[in-house]
Amino acid sequence: MAAGLAENISRSQVSPRSVALWWLGQAGFAMKTPTGEVVLVDPYLSDSCQRVHGLKRLSLPPFGPDEARADWLLFTHEHTDHLDPDTVAPVAGNCPNCRLAGPAGCCEPLAALGIAPERFTLLAANAKHDFPGFSVETVPADHGASAPSALSLLLEVQGLRLLFTGDTSLRPDLLKPLLGRRIDLLVACINGGYGNMGHLDAARLVQAVRPRSALPCHFWTFAEGGAGDPWSFIQACRSLCPETTPLLLKPGEPFLLAAP
Fold first, then answer.
1. pLDDT value for 227
2. pTM of the prediction?
């Protein structure tokens, strides 16, 4: 576990026309903008899936929920490994100015945690929201009947575009509103279980989107539901879309995305 990482994220400074990113394990990421906002996307920093669903966590998060600090919590959907009650509650409590945003499926679990409605922004599909330091544009994701309001999120920071697929099958048709634009980083699930893309489908999505860089996530957290194969994703990206740079981060490792 990387001691002090949460504090380092809070203290770090990001140059203009760049954005800093840290993988938190599973589908979770910390993002910091040049204007200082810390955004956590789908942070799963606990072992609540074992408590709630009996799914034991196999890889540790880079820091615990009580250490996390954020200005925004963004969710692609309401499943426990994305909207983690054991992460959301302490972050919301320790950061009284933190705001939260996600699709309709997130409303009930957030209300159960006591999150005041005025702290939450509902993200509808095919909509754009402007927040301090960044914007979020949404398209539907296909994660089946268990998360019908699931979204993919396009975050834009000073002209840089980061597309988080969330949990979804291969549905490039749903991304049509975003295709044709320059995407600087595509973050794709690759676990291949519960209806999600595996490494080859994720590489095919990279081929359709043609981002500058591509990063796999949602692997090696649970034994159940598909383990994911990040190295095969890297190789498939190099074969199918050689103009894209495939990346691989370990939990807690920083990545600075700069303007081309």
1. 78
2. 0.97
Which residues, in sequence order, are bridge partners of residue 42? none
Residue 112, Cβ neighbours under 10 Å: how many? 9
Rg of the chain, C-alpha, whole Å: 17
What pLDDT is attached to residue 226?
76
Where the chain has pLDDT below 50, the residues are 1-3
Q: Is 4 exposed, middle or buried (0-12, 13-18, 19+ CB in 10 A)?
A: exposed
Task: Determine contact, residues 226/197, Cβ cutoff 8 Å.
Answer: no
- Helices and strands, number each (H, E), in the chain: 6, 14
Side-chain half-sphere exposure of 258, counting CA atoms within 13 A? 5
Give me the helices (H) in 63-154, please. Answer: 85-94, 107-112
Q: Which residues contact 168 (CB under 8 A, 6 or more apart)?
A: 141, 142, 143, 150, 152, 174, 189, 196, 197
Give the C-alpha separation, 242 to 75, whole Å. 31
Instruction: List the domains of the chain with CATH numbers.
Output: 5-258 (3.60.15.10)
- Residue linked to tokens 């103009």: 243
Q: Which residues pair with 39 in a beta bridge?
A: 31, 72
Straight-line distance from the first to the last Cα atom of the chain, in angstroms, rounded to the nearest whole number: 33
